[in-house]
């Protein structure tokens, strides 16, 4: 599992220079590691005294990169899913930002709201599309979202940020849609499949050709 081997670093401030792990190479494949930025990471569930500033655990800036059973741990700007097509399978993370074109499948997403300042909410994503014709976006399918405190699914970042939320096959205490606003849009089956299908990132079949089966 991803918890067995940890790579830790405690840098901060610059998102470009603080990552514990960074790759700009295409065709990067990582399995069974955890990358942690320890600078302001909660200590045994308690608020870290260091200021809440960007502390990146991983920067992914290559194309056709895949991560299997990999953990990403930090507080602010944990996983910089910067650019390129990426596939995350059975991973764990608390916050994702960037302009990547990525699928997160069967991952665990931990909301850290209660470990921040009292009354402060956490976020899961900040999508940063910079061009209206850019195909980038984050797709989450068959994931588990849990944690403590208040949290939001996402917030826009940069001029053409794009967020689409669809409730499909939800269960648990938050699955009751009876109090949703009347103008909420319902995605068609075709729209859903176009996003959750591997074709969203796999022109050329690069995910299927990887040495690790999905």
UniProtKB/TrEMBL annotation:
<dbReference type="InterPro" id="IPR000070">
    <property type="entry name" value="Pectinesterase_cat"/>
</dbReference>
<feature type="domain" description="Pectinesterase catalytic">
    <location>
        <begin position="14"/>
        <end position="164"/>
    </location>
</feature>
<keyword id="KW-0378">Hydrolase</keyword>
<keyword id="KW-0063">Aspartyl esterase</keyword>
<comment type="similarity">
    <text>Belongs to the pectinesterase family.</text>
</comment>
<dbReference type="InterPro" id="IPR012334">
    <property type="entry name" value="Pectin_lyas_fold"/>
</dbReference>
<protein>
    <recommendedName>
        <fullName>pectinesterase</fullName>
        <ecNumber>3.1.1.11</ecNumber>
    </recommendedName>
</protein>
<dbReference type="GO" id="GO:0045490">
    <property type="term" value="P:pectin catabolic process"/>
</dbReference>
<dbReference type="GO" id="GO:0030599">
    <property type="term" value="F:pectinesterase activity"/>
</dbReference>
<dbReference type="InterPro" id="IPR011050">
    <property type="entry name" value="Pectin_lyase_fold/virulence"/>
</dbReference>
<comment type="pathway">
    <text>Glycan metabolism; pectin degradation; 2-dehydro-3-deoxy-D-gluconate from pectin: step 1/5.</text>
</comment>
<dbReference type="GO" id="GO:0042545">
    <property type="term" value="P:cell wall modification"/>
</dbReference>
<dbReference type="Pfam" id="PF01095">
    <property type="entry name" value="Pectinesterase"/>
</dbReference>
């Amino acid at each position: 599992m991803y918890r067995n081997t940890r790579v830790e670093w405690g840098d901060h401030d610059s998102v470009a220079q603080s990552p514990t792990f960074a790759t700009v190479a295409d065709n990067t494949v990582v399995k069974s590691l955890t990358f942690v930025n320890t600078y302001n990471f909660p200590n045994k569930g308690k608020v870290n005294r260091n200021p809440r500033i960007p502390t990146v655990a991983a920067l992914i800036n290559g194309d056709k990169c895949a991560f299997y059973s990999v953990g990403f741990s930090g507080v602010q700007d944990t996983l910089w899913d910067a650019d390129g097509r990426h596939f995350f399978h059975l991973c764990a993370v608390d916050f994702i930002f960037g302009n990547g074109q990525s699928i997160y499948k069967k991952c665990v997403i931990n909301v850290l709201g209660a470990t921040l300042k009292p009354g402060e909410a956490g976020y899961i994503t900040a999508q940063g599309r910079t061009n209206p014709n850019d195909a980038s976006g984050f797709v989450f399918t068959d994931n588990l979202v849990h944690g403590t405190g208040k949290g939001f699914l996402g917030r826009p970042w940069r001029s053409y940020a794009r967020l689409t939320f669809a409730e499909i096959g939800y269960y648990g205490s938050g699955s009751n849609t009876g109090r949703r606003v009347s103008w909420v849009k319902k995605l068609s089956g075709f729209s859903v499949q176009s996003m959750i299908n591997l074709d969203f990132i796999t022109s050329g079949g690069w995910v299927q050709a990887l040495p690790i089966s999905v």
